[in-house]
Amino acid sequence: MTDIKKTLITSALPYINGIKHLGNLAGSLLPADIHARYRRQTRDDVLFICATDEHGTPAELAAAEAGLPIAVYCAQQHGIQADIYRRLGISFDHFGRSSSPQNRALTQHFFKSLDDRGFIEERTLKQVYSLDDGRFLPDRYIVGTCPHCESDRARGDQCENCSRLLEPTDLIRPRSAVSGGTNLEVRPTKHLFLRQQALVSALETWLASRKGWPHLVTSIARKWLDEGIQDRCITRDLAWGVPVPKEGFEGKVFYVWFDAPIEYIAATQEWADADPENRDWKKWWWQADDIEYLQFLGKDNVPFHTVSFPCTLLGSGEPWKTVDVIKGVSWLTYEGQKFSTSQHRGVFLDQALDLLPADYWRWWLAANAPEGSDAAFSFERFAAGVNNDLADTFGNLVNRVLKFVIAKYDGVVPAAGKTGELEHSLAAELTQHLANLKSHQEERSLRKAADEVRAIWSVANAYLVSGAPWSHVIKEPDRAAIVVRTSVNLVALAATVAWPFIPATAERVLEALGSNSEPSWPSSAAEALALIEGGRRIDVPPTRRNGSKPTGRSLPEWNTRRLVYSRMSPHNQALSIDPRRAEVESEGLVADFEFAASPSFLFVAPYESRGRTIRGRTLVGAAVASKRHSPPHAISAIMRELNVESSDHRSNRRGHELVDNCWICFGQERPSQQRPQPSWRESSQERKA
Ligand SMILES: [Zn+2]
Fold it and tell me: How far, in Å, from the CA of 169 to the mean position of ligand 1?
């Protein structure tokens, strides 16, 4: 065995404020996790680090709104996010917090190094003071019209529409995003600047030495350099943040963008401090030339990771590890629009987990990753992708093979038979696919890797069909035995290659086969096909409940959960009951209607009733958000929309039965939260670190 490769992986830091949506998952967390898992499969020494980004005005304002001290608020929010990522199977080695003492010390250290080397400059700025709010406003809390594209939702730091960087004074018709007040005046205030212009040549040299970056990332970095890098103000007039350790700057803190990326290092210190005997953070960051460092982030974060953070590291003059490869991705769109936290548009991660197992989302988002260009999420595409890949291809393989072993061989893998021509050509075919998959994984090409995983599943299904053990089991028992044994190994291989994408599912399958549930990368196709030997007892993977009723048969969940998609029509009028009337009729219904205010989409689970099947093999069962509590007339309304036989849902009893046995999910709008004038939330929630 050659030297073990050491791989440091970081995912962009999710901002502390609020639960993230599928777009955030697809943008950095999931690609980073899939790559970390793959590297662990190949037995690299992997360290996967992330953290919540906790400083800045959005957190400050949200805490005030929640009536909590900011530290308490951040601790709560961190806990919520950490739990969600755990349930999504994101396998961080450490999920830290940028408000940690480690980050405070390290941020101040970087500042002092930069200051000592002459890269910090004091300037008096004219900054916008809001008389209505009684405070200086951070740039992003001044909104107005963009001078370049005339979008009326430009912020003082950047235009969301055309992405150009702005100064607040560039804005036409500026106003406070906190209060909407237009009583703004420009006042002088002292700030510290990082002299990025003095670091341009160091930055150019550094960038030129980076290899293997996706075009998207290089082109964004190039654009910034070509347009001319500006010195960056790194302090703010705020209370919440890392204090500036310099005379005359008491009461000011560092700009959140200065301290957030430093948290990558500080979080590694947090990780090491939890087990100092066995962990050494310096190994990963200090004179760490033997480490390969990979960053995963969305395209809006590219400038800060290709320019700002490298300026901090290079300017310090110290031997810090800098990133080797940045994997940047584009955006996921939701039903033709942007995911938006402020407008409650999209699927949020807590909702996603309530609806379906994490692996469904993981698989689809990886197989449709927004690499190179934006990718479109729609429930229709999601349902089709999940059904085709997880149910019809992977699930089908697992079910056919394992059920056959249980039915015909009493659950014991048959030992008889020798490999023949069919198995040899299968091995040859798989060798090629495994090589392709390895290369796509190493290039961090999620879509191509998912395509290759799917191809391996298909090859396995095709082999099973050609081998047709069911036709040989009586007359040619040896032939049937080798096909079945090979197929059992194919199931294991299918789960092994899928493990980085759908870890929980893969682990259940591998456990059912009595194999290692954290599988290493197969050394060869031939070996993988002979790993499980005759005589081993296997089982069928357990069905896992996730918010819906199992159908009662002991089948793997992906096969019982084929998603059926229906578009309600006409658009957005599916629930034709007037919400105001509903409010009068039933208090319980109000919440439901709020949740499903524009329910244009739904999933329907399969429903079979007393030996007869209605509406093909699928009957629509329905429930609004709080399934069981929906009054029958709400269910009737949904049934009508779906053209279900009225006799099937007329009675209350029947309606409840439907609700108990089936479930749906609306393409929901998130229930609106308490804030009356939420214009500033846009910027607070959309920012990422
Ligand atoms: Zn603009």
Answer: 14
